[in-house]
Write a structure and sequence with these properties.
By secondary structure, this protein is mostly helical. The protein has a single domain, classed as Orthogonal Bundle (Hypothetical protein af1432), CATH 1.10.3210.10. Helices cover 67% and strands 0% of the residues. The chain contains eleven helices and no strands. The longest helix has 21 residues. Bound molecules: fe (ii) ion (2 copies). One fe (ii) ion binds next to α2.
Length: 190
Amino acid sequence: MDYADIIGELTKRLSAKRLSHSIGVSQTAESLAVRFGCNKEKARLAGLLHDLAREVPVNELLQRAQAFGIVVCDIEQAEPVLLHAPLAAKMAQAEFGIDDAEIMQAIILHTTGGLNMTRLDKIIYLADVIEPSRSFKGIDKIRQVAHTDLDEALLLALDQSICYIVKRRGLIHPATIVARNEILRKGSTY
Ligand SMILES: [Fe+2]
Ligand SMILES: [Fe+2]
């Protein structure tokens, strides 16, 4: 399935707004891949497919994730929307023939981040936050830093996500804290 075929298929599954977001993430990820020396085809595909399961109804997410054998933690039980990330990776494999472990991992980690993030993982996480249709206080700074320093931009993006969740009194997934701590402790890792 090529890029245009995938877009055609996504049109059936996602709202126009979400499809436009997905294309924005794909294009942003591709340019970040060129900038930071990563496989741009993988970045393009992971970006396009990352929210494949984002419009699966919340009350179906848990069951569909478990049907794929996804191990669900207590935070994901409480916030099933988080499962759209690992579910998208499984659906990308089962329904779109994506069989690349790096692409799948980047899709899995796009919402929470995690330990030992690869350059591709970081690029997809970041592209999801800064793609052109996104707008929030502080985004200009993240976009600017993303021109030169992938880890620093990721750190800012993780910070913004954590602050957003805190303000809404939401649950922070431990993987997000792990990702942030790792960048702070290692400094530049790529
Ligand atoms: Fe997402
Ligand atoms: Fe997204």
